[in-house]
Amino acid sequence: MQYSGAQTKPASGAVVPVIWYLLNLLAMPVIGFVILLWMYVGSSGVNELRRAHTRAALYMSLIGFTLISSGVAISWTFFTDVGHFGTFALVWAIALHTGFVLWGMVSLAQAISDKRPLFPARWL
Predict the structure, then answer these.
(1) Which end of the chain is more exposed for a tag (fewer CB within 10 A), N or C?
(2) Is the dihedral of CA 60, 34, 49, 9 positive or negative?
(3) Of 42, 1, 41, 35, whose CA–CA distance to 18 is shortest?
(4) Alpha carbon distances (Å) from 56 to 12, 18, 109, 112
């Protein structure tokens, strides 16, 4: 007997790459990225929605790493005082990291509701 709120179509699996994206940010940075990369390489045989979420998650991981590390490196170059560098680098990293986590939460909500991620369509 099927309940009234049961799913009528099979799950797309789009939640899986988003969960690994959030694990990459919050719990297991290197392991999460390697699994995202593995999912990206093997995404040719999966459905379109999961492929879009996999690509968006990998691209956001790369963009996040590039922005955070380049901001810290640039601040190391311009600030001669260690106190100013430390303060700027910490605020920069925390603010960007929080933004990327929030994007991941929105993307998780999109994946749960079987919608495409909020990301430029030409990169997906």
Answers:
(1) N
(2) negative
(3) 35
(4) 16, 9, 14, 15
Q: How remote is the C-alpha of 117 from its chain's centroid?
A: 10
Distance CA 117, CA 124 (A): 9
Question: What is 64-105 written as a DSSP string?
Answer: HHHHHHHHHHHHHHH--SHHHHHHHHHHHHHHHHHHHHHHHH
Quick one: tokens of 43? 């995404």
State the virtual CA torsion across 105, 111, 112, 113 in degrees, nearest 10.
110
CA–CA gap between residue 47 and residue 69 (Å, rounded) = 33
- Name the pLDDT band for 123 (thresholds 50, 70, 90): confident
Whether the CB-CB separation of 37 and 123 falls below 8 Å is answered with no
Global pTM exceeds 0.85: yes
The region that residue 13 occupies, defined by phi over 0 for left and psi between -120 and 50 for alpha, beta otherwise, is: left
